[in-house]
Amino acid sequence: MISKLNNRELDQKIKSLARAENKLLALVVEHIKEADRRKLYLDFNYPNLYDYLVKECGYPGGSAQRRIDAARLLAVEPKLKDKIERGEINLSQTTLLQKSFREKGQRVTPEQKRSLIAKISDMTVAETQVLISKELEIKIKEQTKVTHQKNGSVRFEVTFTREEWESLQKAKDLASNATQSNDLPTLIKYLSDRFIKQKEGSAATVAVKKQVLQRDQCCQYKDHNTQRLCGSRWNLHIDHIKPKWAGGTDDLENLRVLCQKHNLHVYRQQAHIKQLSS
Ligand SMILES: [Zn+2]
Fold this sequence. Notes:
Blueprint: H1 7-38, H2 49-56, H3 61-76, H4 80-85, H5 91-104, H6 110-119, H7 125-135, E1 145-148, E2 154-157, H8 162-179, H9 184-203, H10 206-216, E3 236-240, E4 255-259, H11 260-277
Antiparallel strand pairs: 1-2, 3-4
The chain binds zinc ion.
């Protein structure tokens, strides 16, 4: 029974299982390499090794691709098997290598590949990445890419300088207690919310806010077509009719009450106008 093990025994057990796992992984990769050489997938009417591993062997797509990447490297460097078995090289590293080799095409010689495999032993994934891009002179991606996706989410690909990245990592560590999370979008949202609160919170004083709330009592948003007042009393915010960035003041006449939904709606419209005018 696992729950009966003492801490030392549990530690020993996990370590021995991890060793066994690496051994098994090296064997799997070795066999996939042979299946690749024989084009075994053709026997099962699959057009490629990937489909065979996913549909016939039940591997999730990413796992199948990582194993194929490692198998193709093993075909170039037989020593890779021992390195995987001993845990000196993991599949994240071999996949990084294969991806870079594909990117460079025919220009990477087998000798270069073997030399890189030797060098990445015992490196972290980050170190591996740095080494590969140096040795293969892979261009640094600097363009920021924004893709709006079907479900309304946004995919954002961005390159940070080392300094920017380190400062972000430090912020992540400092905020980890508050965010209970380790991912970047959560951190950026957390920092943005704090900044917005700081900027907007200080804009109108508590006394002025109270006056606006007493005057308006509910959301003052008017539908453009029907001219109907929203009137919601739920989750109310103080909004600047003329935004601060456009020179709007904290005077009572420039303030109104909006519900959260309409506050966000108006904010988006203004952000759009701001973008067009800049
Ligand atoms: Zn409203």
